[in-house]
Design goal:
This protein is mainly alpha-helical.
């Protein structure tokens, strides 16, 4: 094997390594996109839960106010 063959063989190995690196980079980019999509969905879910939480607290406030009113009515009725 002469020097030219050795150089060509090394060049082919480098090109194969470069293609492998590019494939790995594409795989990494795909993984990053998937992770970003998951994070985006999680953010939407968190916002939705926050809105639900606020709604629940408003409903609980209404219920608590109704209970207080009912207790006052009961107290007034017992006093009569």
């Amino acid at each position: 094997m002469d020097k030219l063959d050795i150089i060509l063989e090394k060049l082919e190995k480098l090109e194969a390594g470069q293609k492998e690196m590019q494939a790995g980079q594409k795989e990494l980019e795909t993984g990053q996109k998937e992770m970003q999509a998951i994070l985006d969905r999680m953010e939407i879910d968190i916002l939705s839960l926050r809105m639900d939480n606020k709604s629940i607290h408003r409903k609980l406030d209404v219920i608590a106010a109704a209970v207080v009113d009912a207790q006052e009515d009961i107290t007034m009725l017992k006093a009569q």
